Amino acid sequence: MPISVSPGRWRPVWWSAAIFLAIHTVVRLVLRLDIGRAVPPGLSDLRLFATGLVFDLATLAYVGFPIVVLVALVPVTGRWGKLGRLSIELACVVLLVVLLFVAVAEWTFWQEFQTRFNFIAVDYLVYTTEVIGNIRQSYPVATLLSAIVVATAMLAWVTRRWRRVDDDRTLRGARIAVPGAWALIALGVTGAVHADLKDGSPNAYANELAGNGIYQFFAAYRAASLEYDRFYRTIPDALADTEARASVATPDATFLHPTGIARSIHNAAPERRLNVVLVSVESFSAEFSGTYGRAESLTPELDRLSPQSLVFTRLYASGTRTVRGLEALSLSVPPTPGESIVKRPHNEGLFSLASVFNAHGYESEFLYGGYGAFDNMNYFFGHNGYAVHDRTEIPRSAIHHENVWGVADEDLYTLALARFDQAHDAGHPFFAHLMTTSNHRPYTFPEGRGPWKQHKRISAIRYTDWALGDFIRRARTHPWFADTVFVVTADHCAMSAGKAELPAFRYHIPLWIYSPAHVAPGRFDGLAGQIDIAPTLLGLVGLDYESRFYGVDVFQSRPERALIGTYQLLGLLTDQRLVQLTPHRRAETLAPAMVDDVPQPPVAEDPELTLRAIALYQHAARDFTSGAMRIDRVAPSRRH
Fold first, then answer.
1. SS3 content of the chain, % helix, strand, coil (to 5)
2. pLDDT tens by residue, 412-455
3. Is 564 helix (H, G, I), strand (E, B) or coil?
4. How far is Cα of residue 572 from the mean position of the Cα atoms in its chain?
5. Under 8 Å between Cβ of 639 and 387
6. 215, 55 in Cβ contact below 8 A?
7. What's the N-to-C CA distance of the chain in angstroms?
8. From residue 10, how far is each of 15, 17, 69, 88, 170 by CA, in Å?
9. pLDDT in tens, 56-74
10. What is the predicted pLDDT for the residue at 138?
11. Helices and strands in the chain, H and E counts
């Protein structure tokens, strides 16, 4: 029997396809205009719009399928025809609302991250309380939703004839064949199109624009858990072990076994039972500070501490998310692919900075200005040697300001000072890791702290600096101050996007170590990574310990490298080269952009450097999955 397809029945499908492609083309055009000269014009534009159309069509194969099935199955004439037509009309309007909402969401996401939806957007759907609250406090939500409703009504009315079903001559065979053919196309797209196809330009902005936000969201969801051995270039485990051991073979280290990186660290200097306060500041780029060369410094308080501090001038963060910074600071481990260890299952009882301090009689604490359930922080730290404290312990009467992400930094510091007093009164030295929140959108803080406007990133940076200065001033009045080492660094930089896929300059973070009575001021100008902070601190206070850290004490052996990454890209950074490991078992050697947003072109490979990069990431991924990072006994959660 011949298959007859009536164009009247399928008009809603063609309408949906046209609306989908039109909206995504407009979004791509708007984002392209927003990024401006960061993408060179000409052939780049032709490529990104052509590639973008391919990804839009691939996404349409999935998004359009429900409309195709609905149009094929519901009756549009006869007794149930009116109800069938109404259901199709309703589905089209819902699709239009969703597409416009996603378009607005893409714009706001681009404004903050200069990228399409990625793993950050996936994470945001998990923590709806913080994310929805952040959106409500950062954007005119009522106005945006009203605009979406108005735009939906106008577009639906203007285009109503284009989706009208005006006959039902389509035979039953066609009503089965069309959805079947569409499903086959969708399956074909799954096999033929993958997210990396958009990455054909050396300009990362152009690659992002060439993608489709909906497609990239689901691609990021699928890639949230990446097995190193399955997706990345590997070498024999024995060779990886040899290279990893060589990277941590410092003069103060004696290996405990023939294989693995477990080693005994012996400090020549005597042990000093100094308190250690480590402050990781939210989104705190080195470029904000006059200490790091900014002409109009946003950090006058920290700049005043610089002459009395040990300042690290070339320190690089491990990643672009808070959990990556927390992972590096607590575990001293490379940023292995997929989700951070902070959020992975089976992350209890790991060898951590707190486990070393605890073994020496310290009281170790993690204090967070927000709700510690976010990003699994309370669970991770509570099961790895830290007593955990968050905003729930601060009485409302003691809070000067709060937003969805947390209390004002000054209120976190007040909580910390009280905890330090308790530890001191009990006769215990203390180690505390503080994580701030004020320097995060919506960028709000207590009034009266300075002539700064609310909801501005620069204002939030200035307040963050003010609160740190106030914290040090208040700490000076406490009896434990003279014997305390204060460490101020960042979890990651304020921005992560650049012309390169892994822009090195976006990872440059500050580090001040301040203890006038115990740490000589100066500058450390060697290249180091965030994973080197923990062993360097332990060296400064003179502790002997058994280590499984991948970082080193920079005063024992200058590493002259940093390990940086995203959830997919893994990098080993030196002054002259950036080895970049990517899925599909690729390894590239690039010229790193250390100070500005410029492309990172390919350069001649250094085989030894490539080998070292593969070895470190492969070894770290294996040690976590095999349990080799765990200490003998799982540390119980110590929530106070």
1. 50, 10, 40
2. 999 999 999 999 999 999 999 999 999 999 999 999 999 999 99
3. strand
4. 18
5. yes
6. yes
7. 75
8. 9, 11, 11, 11, 9
9. 999 999 999 999 999 888 8
10. 79
11. 20, 19
φ, ψ (nearest 5 deg) of residue 365: -140, 150
Average pLDDT over residues 493-520: 95
Q: Do the beta carbons of residue 320 and residue 496 sit within 8 Å? A: yes
Q: 281: which strand partners? A: 490
Parallel/antiparallel/unpaired status of strands 570-573 and 562-565:
antiparallel
DSSP per-residue letters across 365-431: EEEESS-TTGGGHHHHHHTTT-EEE-GGGS-GGG-S-B-SS-B-HHHHHHHHHHHHHHHHHTT--EE
**HEC assignment per residue over 325-345:** HHHHHHHCCCCCCCCCHHHCC
Tokens 């997919």, residue located:
568
Contact 108, 135 (CB under 8 A): yes
Instruction: Give the span between the Cα atoms of 444 and 434, in whole angstroms.
Output: 19
pLDDT over 80 (residue 208): yes
CA-nearest of 404, 453, 451, 455 to 111 is 455
- Looking at the DSSP bridge assignments, the partners of residue 487 are 278, 513
Q: Does 3 score more than 80 pLDDT?
A: no
What's the per-residue H, E or C state across 490-543?
ECCCCCCCCCCCCCHHHHEECCEEECCCCCCCEEECCCEEHHHHHHHHHHHCCC
pTM, 2 dp: 0.85
DSSP 602: B
Helix/strand/coil for 489? strand
Query: Considering only CA atoms, which of 299, 204, 123 is closest in space to residue 497?
Result: 204
Domains belonging to the chain, first-starting first, are 11-222 (no CATH), 231-639 (3.40.720.10)
Q: Which residue has the tokens 């992560």?
A: 496
The encoded tokens of residue 428 equal 């215990």
Q: What is the greatest pairwise CA distance in the chain?
A: 93
The CA distance from 478 to 424, in Å, is 10
Residue carrying structure tokens 């937003």 = 403
Closest by CA position to 116, among listed 216, 218, 200 = 216
Q: What is the spatial distance between Cα 317 and Cα 320, in angstroms, rounded to a whole number?
A: 8
